[in-house]
Please model this.
Amino acid sequence: MKNLNLLFILFISAFTYAQTEQEDFDQLVASEMRSSSANYEVFVNPNTLNYDVTYHELRFTVNPNVTTPYIDGIVKTTFTALDDMNSIVFDMATQLAVSSVVMNGSNLTYSQSNYQLFITFPSTIVTGNSATVEITYAGSPPQAEQAFTRTTHSGTPVIFTLSEPFGARDWWPCKQDLNDKIDNIDVYITCPSTYIGVSNGLLLNSVTSGGNTTRHFQHNYPIPAYLISLNVTNYVTYNIQSGLGTTESPLIPIINYLYPESNTTTVQNAINQTIPIFNIFEEKFGPYPYRNEIYGHVQFSYGGGMEHATMSSMGGWSRSLIAHELGHQWFGNQVTCGTWKDIWLNEGLTEYTAGIAVEEMDGPAAFVTWKANKINNITSQTGGAVYLTDAEALNVGRIFSGRLSYNKGSMVTHMLRWVMGDTAFFQALQNYLNDVNLSYGYAITDDLVAHLEAEHGASLTEFFNDWLYNQGYPTYDVQAQNLGAGQVRITLNQSQSHPSVSFFEMPVEIRLTGSGGQTQDVVLNHTFSGEEFVVPVAFTVTGVQFDPNRHIISRNSTTTLSNNSFELAESIFLYPNPSDDLVTIQMPTNISIEKVSFYNALGQNILTSANQSIRTNSIASGIYLVKIETSEGVIHKNFIKK
Model:
């Protein structure tokens, strides 16, 4: 019965929600960049680098019935001084008015300007010492960034937050740069008793008094400011559970807070898709990062979603959206990008987890279609790098580019898997997530590269230069010719869409087909344009297909199968050419070598061999004429010694 229920869930998923996948992806990108569509005057605030936040107690009082968004807050912040400190600075919107700042029972002097709160201490806090300040404030959060929103659903008021990337400061005093995670938080949400509040972590208690209800949530894992959320409306709950369910890894509660009008069988069936996706991700990436707490969804009124730690905010229920936000709990939440230039570590890797859900639940053909759709979008423009420049990292629209940060980032992730193989690739990702210097902390691209290279056993510098830091994509011209005697010659030529890359070195998959329905896939390690390969094949090739499984970002690639009979000279070639040492004569298996002679520009014979592979390290650099005497005749080739 369990398997039948799962099949029913998958059937409902495919039939009902497939048509909304692209729409939900577009809304996902829009919601994650919701806090602005313009350039921000945002920088790493140097005034917040001298302390480490270890704890927040966040007490918020909100009333959705008030049409103007408004918040009353009391924020206790415990911090450790990284330098001797005579004052402390928090990021905070100046529209929020502070009424008091208290430390050790004494009122402190403070001021607000330029989106900062400046607090002066009565005496120096020495490096390594800790202290706690309590800030009381109130006000209407600025609405331009849409980080704190009040609206309605079916006529009922709702308040929710979405702080990524720069919006946390709009509704509470915080340290929002990507350099400090809060060790743990307690969140208290007070609102009229007709509503309930929802935040991160475990709900510890709910107390009603005087017409208001206060709900207390606790989250005991490190968390950046932008992943803390507040939600208030007349939610109803629909609860399920998931996880691999072993003794070491018990089932995890999945708590879903829904608008009452959305608590339908259709929506519940959609949410049930979380169960198999959760299990797939635990198998691929390791245990759910917040196993001592919960996972869940809270509905909000934006399209798309937002990966708030343990409690993703959801504006839709397509499987791709559910998978993306769940995948973020590993990629983006457990390990968070250390700069917005590295946003692909959050969004590209996570969008690829949604692709893995397609692969595992729908099969290889659906996964090929998923990749093809990504490639079509990526190559709709000829340029664009995954990694951001300093200027681009201040532009929210560029940070959350669906084409580059999400789609190209996800396909670069897949191409790493293609280059490395499944075993090394998935092990590298688990090592990255479990690195004690990164887990529940921040990472930059070099941190991921180090783990990938360690498992791959070779440098990936060229790969990342081509696909991540530089721009564009290759177009391939594939030419094939039957050579007889069970062989086909394949020539790969490549052009590039952007001048930042001179050549994309990649393993290229070619599918060869025969008139009797035969199929053979070959993988060619393409290292230069014009490279030729002789491939053994058990049938006469009648069709050629480039990259049938869509492993490579490319566009307008072509294939040509020559119908001409091969001649001896066309069936034999030198590889590699140019070469600085070993050169191999590739030819059909029914031909044997009798003698090979190298002649310099003066016509002098300077090297002779009867071998198919010849060392050329004894001859000088230059151009040589190579006379190849075979059992079928004599041919001549040019050879360049590097």
About this structure: The radius of gyration is 30 Å.
